[in-house]
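Sharing a chain and its predicted structure for anyone who wants a worked example. Both blocks are below, sequence first, tokens second.
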Amino acid sequence: MNPTSPPQAAGRATGGRTAKVTVPPSRYRWAVASRALAAVGGGYALAAATAAGLGLMLAQADMARADAVLAATMLSFVVHAVAVLWAFGCATAWRAWLGIVLPAAPLAAWAVWSRGGLA
């Protein structure tokens, strides 16, 4: 198998045989590019939403502001690393995007809401 060719996806087993389906190279490349964008851009957005949302939550929970920001920022580095692992560990690019966007949305909404809106 050529190292630059896309992997062969296994089809359904039929009568003891497994049919192989070839993924078009352009589709495979777009899926990898989408995962890379989800890992880098989506992971950054998730980490930023985590730092903002968690920092505000901890500050409102009677933690000193500096400690709250420091704790939330340190955790956001871990969140970004896990988001990168998640993006390339999922079965599909859609699942990778959903796994990053769904937790980021409530955290970002909480950060915006707790600061009094976008204004």
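Comments welcome. The beta strands are 8-14, 17-22.
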